[in-house]
UniProtKB/TrEMBL annotation:
It comes from Ignelater luminosus. This is AB hydrolase-1 domain-containing protein. Keywords: Hydrolase. One of its GO terms (molecular function) is hydrolase activity. Belongs to the AB hydrolase superfamily. GO terms for cellular component: membrane. The keyword RNA-binding does not apply. Pfam families: Abhydrolase_1. Residues 49-306 form the AB hydrolase-1 domain.
Amino acid sequence: MLSLRQSIRNLPRFIRQFSTESVTCEEIKIPAPWGHIAGKWWGPQEKRPILCSHGWEDNCGSFDTLIPRLPSHVGYLAIDLPGHGLSSQLPPGVFYHRIDNVVLLKRIVDYFNWSKVSLLGHSMGAIMNYQYTLLYPDTVDFLICIDGLKPLVHEDKRIERMVKIIQNFIKYDYLNSLKKEPPAYAFEMLEKMLHEGTMKSIALDSCKYILKRNTAPSTKEPGKYYFTRDGRLKVSLESDLLGWAQKDIVDSAHRITCPLFASKASHSPFFENKQNLLEVIEVIKKSNKNFEIHNVEGTHHVHLNHPERLDSLISTFIKKYDVSDRSEGGLKSEIKINQASSA
């Protein structure tokens, strides 16, 4: 199997082959204790950007169609979460707990020495941003949540799910240890697999934005590609080992005091009891005068498939609430990969 380092080295050629971006951005790698966090820095590099986090088993390519349509006076740092895209996987034997992503945000904030942070996220990325804001409310100047908000709560059959989670984690951790190249397919087949695997949430012609960072060329079958995301992620979404209680989430919702944008796609499931979300929304409505929520026509990945349905809403929000100083914490030269991706 190609190492992640080899995949990064082949990135310029591979991205050019499948890229449809019209706006140039900088590929970056932020150091982490287990390796690095990869990402793309869009727009101005001399000042603090908006930090963007993607959903489960996606990567920062999830924002390739949306970010170019957002206000250009501010930069956007879209990251690949650990085990996703071009970021390092966690060490062998380590579970992907949901709270780890919140710790990751704090690492990034500290790395750039930001006193404030602006957060934009989709799905799991929105949830982790919400959790970060709960913990550090005075440091977040605004929060944008696309089809995700509060931590998910699944209280039924909790013990049975814990047993299944542990069993599946050990299985996928073992498969990782074999270091064998996964099955490879023609790129068109990978597009179909991703489209159908997301219950057609990602449109077929949008799959390329995710696949160009979640796949690598096969070393055994020329012209074919395989998925590179960490197999252990398959059990991370259902992790109840370090979950939140609904009561705690409701009781703490008043801590979200910064301007908050939330959107819900019309053809996207709630992923938990709908009432859980409504309870939190009611608290925020009463305690946060700068909270706005929008219903948007589309699937869970509407921001990728149809960015035009969200861009004006988000742009208006950013222009209204982007009032904090951004002069600190611009792009560091040492994290550049010495090339920019463009069409």
